Amino acid sequence: MQTMQATSPGGNLPLVRRLEAVGFRAWPAATVIYDGSWQIRLSGGHPSKRLNCVVPLDPSDHRDLALRLEKARKRFHSYGRPLTLRETPLAPPQLIDHLSQQGWSRFETVKVLTANLAQLELPETLDRLPSHDIGRFIDVSLSLAGEDPGLKPALAEVLTAIKPPTGLFMIENAEGAPLAVALCVQDNDLAGVLGFSVSAGQRRQGLGTEILSSALRWARISGARTAWLQVVTDNEPALALYRKFGFQDAYEYHYWREA
């Protein structure tokens, strides 16, 4: 199987649709509403942009832009969230032009990468077995991300809502201090790596390679053929690591917010 990747700057739209679909299942929002082909994702407990955004999924669906954005704004405000839109290659160009004309701005760009698991050189055995302790996994994740421990119930809600098989990977030192963490979601022949993080004081010591190798090996054993992940474009250390593993660009998406 060849590596799944985009074939043009606009992206391979069938591939984009498939990766978007598995991405939604891998990181499920509490509430999902459709306005035509626009997916409106909201989660009252967790502030993640991926859980609180409008995602247009059909380049031809650009009717009544101002009205539909206003309806979405009211929904977001009812959740106490600012209206945020995620632009993938599936977004109508007319919508993006409208946002620009209305003073909206892009504020983050994320790369979606894929790799052929069959071609990766991975250990024959798992250095790290996946954990089933969701509570501990959440504690480690929040600690490494420097996020509010008060988000634990909201993150637990997200993780327990994931339907496909999941592998929770953690590395801690002898005293139990968190060093690295990764979540792998295996959805048929696709496996997504999410929440990948290494302690700032422990980077460039092989921990990222170790935990990523274990997650990908577990995914391959579980039947996945292609791995995917998402990374912000300015995270150069993570991008360098992923490139070493053979990950290649599939497409990019952008977040937009109002002025």
Automatic annotation (TrEMBL):
Keywords: Acyltransferase, Transferase. Residues 124-259 form the N-acetyltransferase domain. SUPFAM superfamilies: Acyl-CoA N-acyltransferases (Nat). The keyword S-adenosyl-L-methionine does not apply. Gene3D superfamilies: 3.40.630.30. InterPro entries: Acyl_CoA_acyltransferase, GNAT_dom, Rv0428c-like_C, YpeA/RimI_acetyltransf. The keyword Transferase applies. It comes from the Bacteria. This is N-acetyltransferase. It comes from Pseudorhizobium endolithicum.
